[in-house]
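Reminder to self: tokens first, then the designed residues, so the page reads top to bottom the way the pipeline ran.
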């Protein structure tokens, strides 16, 4: 019974990994809605495994390492592969069906930076003592959701979508994503200690902005919400955040 209790959070972590693997299968089918919802499911498991571990008092090294491995799939590999296929499609290529040594055929591999930067961030998180109560850089789940919102922005078929369909924007954003994950910038806490406007104006502003954007854009609005969150954090120069890595 003690073994079962101590491993319950790890079982939830495995469900995070399971969700990420299923999302990967749907990536190769370009079924973006299914990819999105399985990643969201994985992120939920990622949130609750830590919550359960703390409530049961069974946090340990095994859970920490397993959590990072699961996140690497759900929030690292999945968005990396999504970005690869978006760049490939924007260039009207089938890289592996008709590979050549032309530079154009190597451009989609810029998306690999997302996976590499995610791995670096997750490994750094495990040993960085500055991040015991705060997060420095964009959390991998937030980065994953930002990238996963791009197919829905493209689907809108308007002026904004044309920007996101451009291959050089997608390549640039792969580099930007890698930077955001590992930048030396703290993001403000999402936890309310009280409900005064003075102490929480940035959180209220983010909440209002998020509700409006989600009503207008739906899932694709996550891109603008996360970008706004990063910009607002930089402007407020806060030094703490309490969301899952």
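Designed residues (245 positions):
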């Amino acid at each position: 019974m003690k073994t079962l209790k101590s491993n319950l959070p790890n079982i939830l972590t495995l469900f995070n990994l399971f969700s990420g693997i299923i999302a990967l299968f749907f990536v190769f089918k370009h079924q973006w809605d299914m990819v999105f919802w399985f990643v969201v499911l994985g992120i939920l498991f990622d949130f609750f495994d830590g919550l359960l571990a703390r409530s049961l008092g069974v946090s340990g090294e095994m859970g920490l390492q397993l959590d990072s491995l699961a996140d690497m799939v759900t929030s690292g590999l999945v968005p990396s592969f999504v970005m690869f296929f978006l760049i490939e499609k924007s260039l009207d290529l089938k890289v592996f069906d008709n590979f050549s040594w032309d530079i154009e055929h190597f451009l989609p591999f810029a998306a690999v930076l997302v996976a590499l930067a995610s791995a670096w961030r997750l490994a750094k998180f495990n040993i960085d003592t500055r991040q015991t109560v705060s997060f420095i850089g964009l959390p991998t789940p937030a980065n994953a959701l930002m990238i996963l919102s791009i197919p829905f922005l493209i689907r809108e078929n308007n002026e904004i979508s044309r920007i996101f369909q451009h291959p050089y924007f997608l390549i640039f954003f792969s580099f930007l994503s890698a930077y955001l994950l590992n930048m030396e910038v703290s993001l403000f806490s999402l936890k309310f200690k009280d409900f005064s406007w003075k102490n929480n104006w940035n959180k209220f502003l983010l909440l209002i902005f998020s509700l409006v954007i989600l009503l207008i854009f739906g899932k694709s609005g996550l891109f603008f919400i996360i970008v706004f969150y990063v910009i607002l954090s930089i402007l407020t120069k806060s030094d703490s955040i309490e969301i899952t890595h």
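The CA atoms of residues 44 and 226 lie 17 Å apart.
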